[in-house]
């Protein structure tokens, strides 16, 4: 599996959410609404989710192991830092 494209939109408002990303996998599958969040221990990604009937949020798309999560996170964070540099924010 290769991530063949990462598109990122920086969030200008103050708050914990810093960007929203979409990834393309092998030029044939897209996952939208992956969020870049500033947490207590630094930046992390949050996969797309929806609120269930019990008011809990559940991921609607997610990697099945930490190796793939780390790969996706690395690709998105690389693009995030590039976008910050282009915007003159880093």
TrEMBL record:
Determine if Cell cycle is one of this entry's keywords.
yes
Report the SUPFAM superfamilies cross-referenced here: SpoVG-like
Entry's Gene Ontology BP terms: division septum assembly; sporulation resulting in formation of a cellular spore
Question: Which of UniProt's keywords are assigned here?
Answer: Cell cycle, Cell division, Septation
**A Pfam family matched by this chain, by name?**
SpoVG
Q: Which Gene3D superfamilies match?
A: Stage V sporulation protein G (3.30.1120.40)
Q: Which family does it belong to?
A: Belongs to the SpoVG family.
Alphabetized HAMAP family for the sequence: SpoVG
How is this protein named in the record?
A: Putative septation protein SpoVG
Task: Give the species this sequence originates from.
Answer: Eubacterium oxidoreducens
